């Protein structure tokens, strides 16, 4: 008997009782290699003593101070640390509790910025199909998992969705990557023209698409074109780096690899590494100056903004990543992981694509590699892979609906930044077993 309203009332979850390094342990004594960091969260692994000590020290000084009364040294320290390495032009940090909240803050800030400028006609937000931006109403409105969104549509605002940049499925055979980027850029231009350029406030995109598509980077040049279009029409570019940011792809921010900077950016998961709930919006100096010269305030606050315990966790996590040069390990082990995945699955009849950057990798499953035909969604292959992986002591983040929100299956890998080469071998070997078990199970049905 449980009084917890679990994600699924039909599934029995093992009880996690401890965690250490790359492993979580359940109450039956089983060990699970956390190859997905939960949902790309646990970038330092579990039970990091330095982070826990930093949190204890923070609790001993000040555990909570409401931001309408006080700032805290730890919030100031976190903002200084994050902004020191922020993309060009970004200067200020709004600290909240989750990725969804960070996206809500970005959306609200976009509207507020234009209100401050007297451009109150900018009411439209453009985002992309096959994206996930969070579960709160605003974030869910811009999110592009259309079948999941449909039942809640009456409660959502009307964001305008265009195509994602998903070369494996949506680049045409007669198109170069450049042609494909140009076609998608034109789609954004067309949508802006249709809505009226001076009615659009912001374009929102995940720099590398995470949960919905399985670690899909854009083709080269795509984001440069997007940035240029936004600039030309005075539209804000909001990048969602909740999952792909804070080092996950091998650079602190995924947009560094696109050589662009957004006006607003959301980060969360890897910021605090799961040691405390935290998310944040990074905001450009230009936006902050507009507010400072206008009303002076951002009317969007929550009780737990800048929570000292979360800030302490995030400061400790980010300091360790920097001190131990872990981004180099993300790059090197990321290259290992890519190579090992391609060795293992490069000729696998049911693996259509291996993709991603750094320690953020996706494996897309297909019933036929040559035609890219997905499995029948009723088989729920993705869920079976997840279960089989757990039996082999491996946590992987799997999802269905890769193709169109309904069909398609993929596996997302996002192991802690502390993995070594042996760990990479372990992940790939166990994943191979899990995929074969799950597909064997379907075949025998
Ligand atoms: C890209 C992206 N944005 C936003 C969110 C929402 O973050 P949270 O679940 O912390 O609210 C997620 C969560 O998976 C995400 O992957």
- Rg, please? 21 Å
Instruction: Indicate how many domains the architecture comprises.
Output: 2
Per CATH, which architecture of the largest domain?
Answer: 3-Layer(aba) Sandwich
* N→C terminal distance: 31 Å
Sheet with the most strands: spatial strand order: 4-12-11-10-7-5-6
Q: By helix and strand content, what is the structural category?
A: alpha/beta
Largest sheet: 7 strands, mixed
Question: What's the CATH first level of the largest domain?
Answer: Alpha Beta
CATH homology superfamily name of the largest domain:
Type I PLP-dependent aspartate aminotransferase-like (Major domain)
Q: Can you give the mean pLDDT?
A: 97
Q: Could you walk me through the main structural features you see in this protein, from its secondary elements to its overall organization?
A:
This protein is an alpha/beta fold and 445 residues long. The chain has two domains: 16-34 and 325-443, Aspartate Aminotransferase, domain 1 (Alpha-Beta Complex), CATH 3.90.1150.10; 51-323, Type I PLP-dependent aspartate aminotransferase-like (Major domain) (Aspartate Aminotransferase, domain 2). The protein is 39% helix and 18% strand. The strands form four sheets. A seven-stranded mixed sheet has the order 4-12-11-10-7-5-6, sandwiched between helices. Strands 1-2-3-15 form a four-stranded mixed sheet. The longest helix is centred in the C-terminal third of the chain and has 23 residues, at 421-443. Residues 39, 98-100, 103, 132-135, 206, 210-211, 240, 242-243, 268, 279 line the site of pyridoxal-5'-phosphate.
């Amino acid at each position: 008997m449980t009084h917890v309203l679990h994600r699924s009332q039909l599934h029995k979850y093992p009880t996690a009782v401890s965690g250490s390094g790359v492993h979580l342990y359940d109450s039956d004594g089983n060990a699970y290699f956390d190859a997905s960091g939960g949902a790309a969260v646990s970038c330092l692994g579990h039970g990091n003593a330095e982070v826990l000590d930093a949190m204890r020290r923070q609790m001993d000084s000040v555990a909570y101070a409401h931001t309408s009364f006080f700032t805290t040294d730890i919030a100031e320290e976190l903002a200084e640390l994050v902004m020191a390495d922020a993309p060009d032009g970004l200067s200020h940090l709004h600290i909240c509790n989750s990725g969804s909240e960070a996206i809500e803050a970005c959306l609200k800030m976009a509207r507020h910025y234009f209100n401050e400028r007297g451009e109150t006609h900018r009411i439209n937000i453009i985002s992309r199909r096959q994206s996930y931006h969070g579960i709160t109403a605003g974030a869910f409105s811009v999110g592009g998992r259309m079948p999941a969104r449909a039942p809640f549509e009456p409660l959502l605002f009307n964001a305008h969705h265009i195509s994602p940049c998903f070369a494996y499925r949506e680049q045409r055979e007669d198109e170069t990557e450049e042609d494909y980027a140009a076609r998608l850029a034109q789609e954004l231009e067309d949508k802006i023209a249709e809505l009226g350029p001076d009615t659009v406030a912001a374009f929102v995109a995940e720099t590398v698409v995470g949960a919905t598509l399985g670690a899909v980077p854009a083709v080269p040049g795509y984001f440069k074109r997007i940035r240029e279009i936004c600039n030309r029409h005075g539209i804000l570019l909001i990048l969602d780096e909740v999952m792909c940011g804070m080092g996950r792809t091998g650079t602190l921010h995924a947009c560094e690899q696109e050589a662009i900077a957004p006006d607003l950016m959301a980060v969360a998961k890897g910021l605090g590494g799961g040691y405390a709930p935290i998310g944040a919006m990074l905001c450009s100096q230009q936006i902050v100056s507009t507010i400072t010269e206008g009303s002076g305030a951002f009317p969007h606050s929550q009780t737990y903004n800048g929570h000292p315990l979360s800030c302490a966790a995030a400061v400790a996590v980010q300091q360790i990543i920097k001190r131990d040069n872990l981004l180099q390990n993300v790059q090197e082990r990321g290259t290992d992981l890519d190579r090992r995945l391609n060795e293992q699955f490069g000729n696998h009849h049911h693996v259509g694509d291996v993709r991603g950057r750094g320690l953020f990798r996706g494996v897309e499953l297909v019933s036929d590699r040559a035609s890219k035909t997905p499995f029948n969604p009723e088989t729920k292959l993705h869920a079976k892979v997840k279960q089989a992986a757990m039996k082999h002591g491996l946590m992987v983040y799997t999802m269905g609906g890769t193709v169109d929100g309904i069909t398609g299956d993929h596996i997302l890998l996002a192991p802690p930044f502390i993995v070594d080469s042996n760990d990479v071998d372990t992940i790939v070997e166990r994943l191979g077993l899990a995929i074969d078990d799950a597909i064997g199970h379907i075949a025998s049905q």
